[in-house]
Every structure is written in structure tokens, then in C-alpha cells.
Amino acid sequence: MIEVVIRNRCTGCQKCLEVCPAQVFELGVDGLSSIARQQDCQSCYMCELYCTSDALYVSPNCEQPEGIDEQTAEASGTLGYYRRYSGWDEWAGQHPNRHWVMGSVFQRAKVLLGPTKNELEKH
């Protein structure tokens, strides 16, 4: 489950907002991503894959939040771990990228499950 956005690392690129199939993030008043619907997180790690500044900490516990703060997340030494070992961006060629198939899986799930609560509220 998504735990924190590390504010001093977030560049405001909004990639996490674009790729999150559950629309967990919103743009904060400061122009940075913020977690708006943590309970909707599917622990798919898509946000972490696309965050080139390693500003997100996704916990492997997908059932409930662990309550980790920014300092604990930074001290964990795991920021960007999933992206690195999936072979994305600057890590391409150093580690196998097997996550590429997940995009189509999430799209199919979104079609099968229908619109999210947030999508329905927008219309």
C-alpha cells in the first residue's frame, strides 16, 4: 500500500497521478502529488515504477497502512527498489524488465471492474 510521498524528492511530474489505476493520488496545492485515497491503493507499484525521483514509498503490506513517515521511508534504503530491480529507466539492461505486461493487465481489470468511485463522482 502507498505510504508516503517524499516531499523533498517529488518533482511534481504527476506521473503517479497518470498511471495509478485506482486514482489514489491528487495534485496538492503546492503542485506536488499527495495521497488522497490510500485505502484504494492496490499495491501494484505502478506509481513507484514511473517515479524517476524515487519519491514514493509503497509498502508490501497491501492490507493496511503501516504508518511509515517520510524520514523512516528515506532511512529504509528501499526507495526506488522496485523500479531498479524491474530494469526501468537508468536500470535498463542491468535487471530484467518483466513488469511491462502489467499495464495491459490493469487496463483489463479496470474494464472488468468498471469505473472507480472517484471516476463516478467526476461525472
TrEMBL record:
Listed Pfam families: Fer4_9
GO molecular function: 4 iron, 4 sulfur cluster binding; metal ion binding
Keywords, comma-separated and alphabetical: 4Fe-4S, Iron, Iron-sulfur, Metal-binding
Entry keyword S-adenosyl-L-methionine: no
InterPro entries the UniProt entry points to: 4Fe4S_Fe-S-bd (IPR017896), 4Fe4S_Fe_S_CS (IPR017900), Fe-S_Ferredoxin (IPR050572)
Residue intervals of the 4Fe-4S ferredoxin-type domain: 1-30
Keyword Metal-binding: yes
Name listed for the protein in its UniProt record: NAD-dependent dihydropyrimidine dehydrogenase PreA subunit
